[in-house]
């Protein structure tokens, strides 16, 4: 068992599974969630619940954050009863949220003034990866801090890469989300074309899996697009939020991302139509509808 006492902030779909894997790996975990009562299964794993992020910080050496957006991270770190109210020199914060790279650098500086290091460590792999402990994790921060974070991250993920200084992990996650946007739209268009052509689309997917069109999305989400059913994996609303971060970074860097902009427009429409909580493979709804299929 590690000597590190781990705090965990945010017990949503991703966070609850990640905290559970930390407890199973032998870490002493203290957790907080904005809405009490989430993830009751963690109690059976020995996870201690407290009432504030500050209380988590006071009882932990390392604090993992997994909340929805940049303002949420700022609130749990620096708001009333936030982490900063309970920190001490030598602690480490690992932020697994997906937020703004520039905000991450600001947060790292504010924590550093209190002797606390920050590693930005956004994750990819969806709810399945969180449950199985197979997430891909992109780390930004000082090398020594990332090294300290690695055993904790290894309990939650399979591929852990230090990609550069503070904010770099978030920038890589933005790249990841841009590529995923195009891949989901491409797979959806292919599925719809196959359906319209009267093909056995499941056979088509199996055949394409042996060639250059193979992708995680084709293998794991094409069935949902064929069935027009999109149970939760990674919410449309969260990917739309992530694309906003990526598009803001693109504007700052002078990059033109027309594919990501198109996906963002589609997701805005899906959210407005009541599909915010569906898996992002629901992008196929737009392509299906435009093609005269149920969407």
Explained architecture:
The protein is of the alpha/beta class. It is 52% helix and 14% strand. The chain has helices spanning 13-24, 41-44, 53-58, 70-78, 101-112, 126-132, 143-154, 168-196, 201-208, 216-227, 236-253, 258-272, 283-290, and strands at residues 5-9, 28-32, 48-49, 62-65, 92-95, 117-120, 123-124, 135-140, 157-164. The strands form 2 sheets. A 6-stranded parallel sheet has the order 3-2-1-4-5-6, sandwiched between helices. A 3-stranded mixed sheet has the order 7-8-9. Helix 5 (101-112) links the parallel strand 5 and strand 6 (117-120). The mean pLDDT is 96.
Give a quick precis of the structure.
The protein is an alpha/beta fold.
């Amino acid at each position: 068992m590690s000597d590190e006492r781990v705090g965990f902030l945010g017990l949503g779909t991703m966070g609850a599974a990640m905290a559970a894997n930390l407890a199973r790996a032998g870490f002493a975990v203290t957790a907080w969630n904005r809405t009490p009562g989430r993830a009751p299964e963690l109690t059976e794993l020995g996870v201690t619940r407290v009432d504030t992020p500050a209380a988590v910080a006071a009882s932990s050496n390392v604090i993992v954050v997994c909340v929805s957006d940049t303002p949420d991270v700022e609130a749990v770190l620096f708001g009333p009863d936030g982490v900063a109210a309970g920190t001490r020199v030598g602690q480490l914060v690992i932020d697994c949220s997906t937020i703004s790279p520039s905000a991450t650098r600001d947060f790292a500086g504010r924590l550093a003034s209190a002797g606390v290091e920050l590693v930005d460590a956004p994750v990819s792999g969806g709810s399945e990866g969180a449950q199985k402990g197979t997430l891909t994790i992109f780390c930004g921060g000082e090398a020594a801090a990332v090294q300290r974070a690695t055993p904790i991250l290894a309990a939650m993920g399979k591929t852990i890469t230090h990609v550069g200084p503070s904010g770099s992990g978030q920038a890589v996650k933005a790249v990841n989300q841009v590529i995923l946007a195009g891949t989901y739209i491409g797979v959806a268009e292919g599925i719809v074309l196959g359906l319209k052509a009267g093909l056995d689309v499941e056979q088509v997917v199996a055949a394409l899996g042996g060639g250059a069109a193979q992708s995680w999305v084709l293998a794991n989400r094409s069935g949902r697009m064929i069935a027009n059913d999109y149970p939760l994996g990674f919410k449309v609303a969260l990917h739309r939020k992530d694309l906003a971060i990526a598009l803001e970074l693109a504007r700052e860097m002078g990059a033109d991302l027309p594919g990501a902009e198109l996906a963002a427009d589609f997701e805005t429409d899906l959210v407005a139509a009541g599909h915010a909580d569906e898996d992002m493979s629901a992008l196929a709804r737009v392509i299906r509808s435009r093609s005269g299929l149920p969407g």
